[in-house]
Design brief:
Blueprint: E1 3-9, H1 16-29, E2 34-40, H2 45-50, E3 58-61, E4 64-68, H3 73-84
Parallel strand pairs: 1-2
Antiparallel strand pairs: 1-3, 3-4
Length: 86
């Protein structure tokens, strides 16, 4: 099963690049298991509102916000494995 990963960011956020970097690293280590979409909340506000986001970075897996803030590589890998095995 491919896990849809949505990364919500903002250009002015100092922590967003770390979240993107973690997602990119995990994507390289788990090829074919993730479909990644990076969403700039300044461009696509509707999706952030739909998810009730009040802060970035935020990461949703299969339509459910799992992280607000940049997770560690281990936390993200574990959450993706969990989603894959549902």
């Amino acid at each position: 099963m491919v896990v849809k990963v949505e990364v919500f960011t903002s250009p002015s956020c100092p922590y967003c690049p770390m979240a993107i970097e973690v997602v990119n690293e995990v994507e390289k280590e788990m090829p074919g298991t993730m479909e990644v979409e990076k969403i700039d909340i300044m461009v696509d506000r509707e999706k952030a509102v739909e998810y009730g986001l009040m802060a970035v970075p935020a990461i949703a897996l299969n339509g459910v916000v799992r992280f607000v803030g940049a997770p560690s590589k281990e936390e993200l890998t574990s959450a993706i494995e969990e989603e894959k095995n549902k």
